[in-house]
Amino acid sequence: MSSRIIKYLLKRGLLLLVTVIVAIYMTIYIANMGGYVDEIVKSEIYISVSQSIRQNPAYRGLNDTQIMKLINETYAIEIEKIGFDKPFIYRSFIYLKDAITLSLGRALFLYSDSGSKSVRIIILERLPRTVLLFTTTQMILFFIGLFFGLFLSRRYGSFLDKLSVMLAPLSSLPGWFYGIFLILVFASLFRSWFGVGLPYGGMVDAPPPEDKVMYALSVLKHMILPVMSWLVAYSFINVYVRRTFFLIFSSEDYVELARAKGLPESLIQRRYILRPTLPPIITDFSLTLIGSWMGAIITERVFNWPGIGSLFYSASMIFDTPVLVGLVVIYAYLLAATVFTLDIIYAILDPRIRVGGT
């Protein structure tokens, strides 16, 4: 690897690191609304402490003054325990240091399925479920777009080509919109008509099957409708974009020269059209994949899929700031790692990039 490439990658890595740090701090500030959320959390803690003490039979012999003193003392201990006794601006930099080092702390209200309040455990418990669902979906979309895009680019102006162009606007509606109708048809109507239907939502049957094979089949059954909703929503635009992309490259001079030389069409498609388009296609796939892991909140809510999207929604509703910040930190690191990996691939493999340039 040349010194120019190393210099370029160091510059890109430093820029990404600064971007991640700024993004994390902005998230910390916004998630706390400049400290306003602290007041909400403090009031909820005070109410919880007050109710706990007043309902405790052990304190029924105390008068009102003693009760209030005990409430205030217990409240002060709880506030100090979570660090809320210090100013927000001071705590924000402590949060930033912890976030950068992935010391994500403890959730204020949420728990993992195992009962832990560790933000890291809560997120790592949900992340594989989202990765499973949306990586599967994006892989299917990727190969559909690649195969049919290449197929239609060789049949420009045909009936199928015109049909794909006509169907592309269907992708203007999001996947969760189609998901609602798919649930209505395949889960509700099919169950009333035929006595059987696909699950309304969730990830696995209740109670979960003990056999591993049956458990996997149950998960696959629950994946059908959410995957189908995204395929219906995004397959047509995916095919249209790839088809247009391949058509543009098909008109390049070097492709015309290859055809003039009498090279087989399959070789031209593979070597002269598909290969040059792979870097931007892989870039688009990688960024779309990472984006789908964090951007499918409504889809997960519609299908009650217990992933990152549902966790983000739940944390937003109850102002669980540590979980919100933890989710953004994980996403920022995943996105930065993906972009940096793509930079390395481009710098090494693509000679058209001016390595070290601005």
Q: Would you kindly provide a written description of the structure presented here, covering whatever features stand out?
A:
By secondary structure, the chain is an all-alpha fold. It folds into two domains: 3-109, no CATH class; 120-315, MetI-like fold (Orthogonal Bundle), CATH 1.10.3720. Helices cover 74% and strands 0% of the residues. It has 13 helices and no strands. It has helices at residues 3-31, 36-54, 64-81, 88-100, 119-153, 159-167, 175-194, 212-250, 253-260, 265-295, 297-302, 308-317, 321-349. Helix 1 (3-31) packs antiparallel against helix 13 (321-349), helix 2 (36-54) packs across helix 3 (64-81) and helix 9 (253-260) runs antiparallel to helix 10. The two termini are 19 Å apart. 22% of the residues are buried. The mean pLDDT is 85.
Q: Layout of SSEs?
A:
Elements: H1 3-31, H2 36-54, H3 64-81, H4 88-100, H5 119-153, H6 159-167, H7 175-194, H8 212-250, H9 253-260, H10 265-295, H11 297-302, H12 308-317, H13 321-349
Helix pairs in contact: 1-4, 1-13, 2-3, 5-8, 5-10, 5-13, 7-8, 8-10, 9-10, 10-13, 12-13
